[in-house]
Fold this protein.
Amino acid sequence: MSVREASCACGKLTAHVEGEPVRVSVCQCLDCKRRTGSAFAWNAVFPAEQVRIEGDFTTFERGSEDGFWARHHFCPACGSTVFYEIERRPGMISIPVGVFSDPDFPAPTVEVYGERRPAWLPELAPTQE
């Protein structure tokens, strides 16, 4: 069974994950673009029982474009978002793939809000939602 570690920029908040993600996706929604400061977000989703969090974190809750809540958990020292939860996936933890710092992390298989993809960016994955 694979074991991965995700951490914030300063290393004070980590997520230890056992097993493979149940979903690896690219999201083009405006909220993910704001959260990442990028053209899209690359995320991995795991059952909560596969994730162990170490360190202190601060939580920011907001509503999504579709009216559901999202809870983003970030390091109070450096501000890096290490994991988040969304109302539409109870019992699941989402982790931005970049905090794994793993160039061999599995590629996304799902693209969400593909209609918001910038014109210069080719389609990244088949749209399944």
Remarks:
- Residues 44 and 102 are 12 Å apart (CA to CA).
- The radius of gyration is 14 Å.
- The chain has one domain: 3-116.
